């Protein structure tokens, strides 16, 4: 998201979504770059349609563990990224 207008719109929407879901926006904001990288890697690797669903799975796993953002979110993204690398999708 390099367009400042898109960044503002995305951040506004994500702030609202976090409020509705009772999620700390600042904690979530810290993992946004990792999640965007993850969805890009999945979309350009194993499956484009699976990209947002993989991000959702990462969130489910972090939530199931009772994780607090951002630390555990980073850990879960790293696990999936490592799998992508092991499967040959990343250098």
Automatic annotation (TrEMBL):
Superkingdom as given in the UniProt entry: Bacteria
InterPro entries: DUF6457 (IPR045598)
Origin species: Corynebacterium frankenforstense DSM 45800
Protein name: DUF6457 domain-containing protein
Record-annotated DUF6457 domain positions: 6-84
């Amino acid at each position: 998201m390099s367009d400042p207008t898109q960044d503002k719109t995305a951040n506004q929407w994500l702030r609202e979504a976090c409020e509705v879901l009772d999620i700390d926006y600042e904690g979530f904001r810290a993992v946004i770059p990792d999640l965007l990288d993850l969805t890009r890697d999945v979309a350009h690797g194993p499956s484009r349609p699976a990209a947002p669903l993989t991000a959702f799975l990462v969130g489910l796993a972090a939530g199931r563990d009772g994780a607090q953002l951002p630390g555990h979110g980073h850990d879960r993204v790293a696990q999936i990224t490592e799998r992508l690398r092991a499967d040959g999708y990343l250098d």
